Amino acid sequence: MPFVRATAYSSSANLGAGFDVLSLAHQAYKDVVEAEIVGEGKSEVVIQSNSDLPLDPLKNSAGAPVLNLLNEMGLKYRVKLRIHKGVPYGLGLGSSGASAVAAVAALNSLLNLKLSLEEVVRYATAGEKAVSGSPHPDNVAASAFGGVVAVVSTSPVRIVTIPVRLNFKITLIVPRIHTGEGKTKRARELVPKQVDIGKMVENMRYLSSFVLGITKGDRELTRMGLNDEIVEKSREPLFPYYPKIREIALRKDAVGVCVSGAGPTILVLSDEETDLEGIKREVSTVCNGFETVCDFVDTQLGGGVETERFN
């Protein structure tokens, strides 16, 4: 039987003050999902995986959006998904988003549904809802489109790719910790429901600065933009090492630093002015002080989801 293999990269969302709006794809990790039709007459999803994530499609970030797509379009197929997890989950690296996008893109190609990338994102958000309770589109948008993206509307879904004219490298500081199930849900519950108008205005300035900085190639604007007075502050109890890591990175002239998505991974942007090795040395000491080993993953911006058909 023919099948389609889709590959989607990991991602970092929020990017300072861009909560649920900004994200970027990186080549640090990738998920691969293969979709195959194994029967007809009923909308059904069967999952095989190299991970210990739930095989129940209603609780699986790849299975849920595919089942939703089948039901919404009235497609009576039994679909087998083979999920090869490469993006570690629970670390703020868009793991659920990568597999959701890859699964939807694979079925889209397999059945020649001609979905646009924005439609792929819309369906893929069902995967985020299945695992976190919230259909947030930022990670799936980055994995689908690649590069740096902004979610400018959720109803209807509209994604804008932000042109990057700033030369920077990406380093992920990834703690070797197991956050357990429901980490993203817990992180979202910490976000305040009401905020001071002054903090909101300050965050709008940060978001504008970041977008203008990377589009104009302005290092200082980008550095100023990777700040957040609301979401990162509210989540600091989840990663108490972050303020010290941030201080080290900025002191050693990083372009910018922020929490990757819901954490605990930290995203550092650097260039030729940054003492990146010095950052790694000092951060290792900080991580050890919290009885945690941190890995440093140097990477670059990733492209959008790719598909390959096998007959």
TrEMBL record:
| Listed GO MF terms | ATP binding; homoserine kinase activity
Start and end of every GHMP kinase C-terminal domain? Answer: 220-287
Specify where it is mainly localized.
cytoplasm
* Keyword field contains Cytoplasm: yes
Residues the entry annotates as binding ATP: 88-98
**Domain (GHMP kinase N-terminal) ranges:** 68-147
GO cellular component terms attached to this protein's record: cytoplasm
Matching entries from SUPFAM superfamilies are given as: GHMP Kinase, C-terminal domain (SSF55060), Ribosomal protein S5 domain 2-like (SSF54211)
EC class: transferase
Is ATP-binding among the key words of this record?
yes
For this UniProt record, the keywords arranged alphabetically read as follows:
Amino-acid biosynthesis, ATP-binding, Cytoplasm, Kinase, Nucleotide-binding, Threonine biosynthesis, Transferase
Report the Pfam families cross-referenced here: GHMP_kinases_C, GHMP_kinases_N
Instruction: Report the subcellular localization.
Output: Cytoplasm
Question: Which EC number applies?
Answer: 2.7.1.39
Q: Which reaction does it catalyse?
A: L-homoserine + ATP = O-phospho-L-homoserine + ADP + H(+)
Q: In which pathway does it act?
A: Amino-acid biosynthesis; L-threonine biosynthesis; L-threonine from L-aspartate: step 4/5
GO biological process terms, semicolon-separated: threonine biosynthetic process
Regarding protein family, the annotation reads: Belongs to the GHMP kinase family. Homoserine kinase subfamily.
Q: Which NCBIfam families match?
A: PRK01212.1-4, thrB
Query: What does it do?
Result: Catalyzes the ATP-dependent phosphorylation of L-homoserine to L-homoserine phosphate.
Q: What is this protein called?
A: Homoserine kinase
Species: Metallosphaera tengchongensis
Please spell out the taxonomic lineage of the organism that makes this protein.
Archaea, Thermoproteota, Thermoprotei, Sulfolobales, Sulfolobaceae
